[in-house]
Automatic annotation (TrEMBL):
The protein's name in its UniProt record: Triosephosphate isomerase
Transmembrane helix listed as a keyword: no
Gene: tpiA
Main location: cytoplasm
Keyword line: Cytoplasm, Gluconeogenesis, Glycolysis, Isomerase
Organism the protein comes from: Marinimicrobium koreense
Subunit field text: Homodimer.
This enzyme's EC code(s): 5.3.1.1
Annotated pathway: Carbohydrate metabolism; erythritol degradation; Carbohydrate biosynthesis; gluconeogenesis; Carbohydrate degradation; glycolysis; D-glyceraldehyde 3-phosphate from glycerone phosphate: step 1/1
Length: 269
């Protein structure tokens, strides 16, 4: 099995004091044993990137919550990909639904950011997902396919080989209600099929699930064969909860009750 990936997106939360406390608890929680086959990353607000790097240099990868579509110049308040690279970020989230909805980012804007991140040698985490209204109208597949295809058309399918795709149904983010297991599995299957249709080895692309993923449901979500990890929002703010999710992400044989689900291939949907 491939290595799992768990990314914590802190959004606009935290403080210097909170960061030290979080890191202390997280480091202490890892003392008992080592995570097996799990890579962990955290995406704090921009002002805290340096502090997280300094207090957790050997435990977690560093990620950014967004990036500018410009490289340099008079763009007040923006952060360039070269700045993120200097801060030793490995991952950069692009296309999060909150930026799509509140900042008016379009698929084309996100594709441009994706391209800049890829060219800089960092790993873009492309967020895709449907709204509640789009879901109700049966548009989940078409919406997500368009979001991914725009990146492929702008950057080429090869750019996705070294990227991460995170399926986050917009209606599940911050609501406490995650998607049904069958819905997660089928949507990830659609994504892999689209990647395959574009000439990629779809099984090599890391697919994450996000949207009210928490300690109570992480193990069963991670047991799905098409899920390679998670993009965690609110639950990543508590070190103990985030660590529990990381433990759940460790690769292990499927539980007996999940065997029938694990035998389903994405081609079957």
């Amino acid at each position: 099995m491939k290595q799992r990936l768990v990314i914590g997106n802190w959004k606009m939360n935290g403080s210097l004091a909170d960061n030290i406390l979080w890191a202390t608890h997280f480091r202490h929680g890892l003392k008992s044993q080592t995570l097996q086959d799990v890579e962990v990353a955290v995406c704090p607000p921009f002002p805290y990137l340096q502090s997280i790097r300094s207090i957790l240099p050997d435990i977690v990868q560093l990620g950014a919550q967004d990036v500018s579509s410009e490289c340099i110049g008079a763009f007040t308040g923006e952060i360039s990909v070269n700045m993120l690279k200097e801060l030793q970020c490995r991952y950069v989230i692009v296309g999060h639904s909150e930026r799509r909805a509140r900042m008016g980012e379009r698929d084309a804007d996100i594709a441009e950011k994706f391209k800049l991140v890829s060219l800089a040698g960092l790993t873009p985490v492309l967020c895709v997902g449907e709204t509640e209204q789009e879901r109700a109208h049966g548009q989940t597949r078409s919406v997500i396919s368009h979001q991914i295809q725009t990146v492929i058309d702008r950057c080429g399918a090869h750019a996705l080989r070294n990227a991460v795709i995170a399926y986050e149904p917009v209606w599940a983010i911050g609501t406490g209600v995650s998607a049904e297991l069958a819905d997660i599995q089928s949507t990830h299957a659609v994504i892999r099929a689209q990647l395959s249709d574009n000439g990629l080895d779809a099984d090599d692309v890391t697919l994450l699930y996000g949207g009210s993923l928490k300690p109570g449901n992480s193990e069963e979500i991670f047991s799905l064969p098409n899920v390679d990890g998670g993009l965690i929002g609110g639950a990543s703010l508590k070190a103990a909860d985030f660590l529990d999710i990381c433990w759940a992400a460790q690769t292990r044989p499927p539980e007996p009750e999940m065997k029938s689900t694990n035998n389903v291939r994405y081609q079957d949907f």
